[in-house]
Design a protein that fits this description.
- With 209 residues, this protein is an alpha+beta fold.
- It has a domain at 15-109 and 119-156.
- It has four helices and twelve strands.
- The strands form three sheets. It has a five-stranded antiparallel beta sheet, with no helix packed on it.
- Strand 4 and strand 5 form a beta hairpin.
């Protein structure tokens, strides 16, 4: 079961934006952590990632209170600290994105989801006392339920509308089947619903008598 999920149409058409938290959030690159292929860092209270060999940074979280990212040894997961509602908790999400974004993407009906089912986490931990030696022991206990009072994500994940596996042979050949299918879906949607660009109005002349 894969962890990657691409959000077609709405996400691929959107321009990358920048989200800043409260004024006291340092707008500095902080706490970079490395995997074999990626760099993840905190900036403006959110987590971002970028390829190690260069490229554009991508925003991973939007809560505005995340810090201290750390890759798992295999590079598949990222642990980070999140401060919400006055509680400082530790969260874990897949390195290529968590469950919350595709859940919200579907909830807002922005477009179809392309890829494979997400890992089914979205569970945090909080308020565990430290041990005498300075260490700590945790257990997941802060799961999220949906708008209809059901546990929609934990141990289930977000299923795609269009399931596409990234086969190792395709990746080795330089292809990305999930991304390619998402682009195809987006182009087909644009043909059915072309973007209408409004006509440019004439420039005003403020020097008329």
């Amino acid at each position: 079961m894969g962890f990657r999920l691409l959000m077609a149409v709405g996400l691929l058409l959107a321009l990358p934006g920048y989200s800043f938290a409260a004024e006291d959030t340092p707008l500095l690159v902080q706490a970079p952590t490395l995997s074999k292929t990626e760099i993840v860092f905190a900036y403006g209270g959110c987590l971002w990632n970028a390829p190690r060999d260069g490229g554009n940074a991508r925003q991973l979280t939007t809560g505005g209170h995340e810090s201290g990212p750390q890759f798992s040894p295999d590079g598949k997961f990222i642990a980070f600290t999140g401060e919400y509602d006055g509680n400082v908790d530790v969260f874990v999400m897949p390195a290529d994105g968590g469950d919350a974004l595709p859940w919200m993407f579907r909830q807002d009906k922005i477009g179809p989801l392309v890829g494979t089912r997400t890992w089914g986490g979205l569970v945090g931990i909080s308020n565990y006392p430290s041990l005498l030696d300075g260490g700590f022991v945790t257990a997941p206990r802060a799961a999220s339920y949906g708008l209809h009072g059901e546990w929609e994500v934990e141990n289930h994940g977000i299923a795609p509308d269009i399931e596409v596996e990234n086969e190792p042979a395709s990746i080795a050949a330089g292809h990305d089947p999930q991304l390619e299918r998402a682009v195809q879906v987006t182009l087909e949607a644009l043909k059915k619903n072309p973007v209408v660009i409004p006509e440019h109005p004439p420039y005003p002349n403020y020097h008329q008598n």
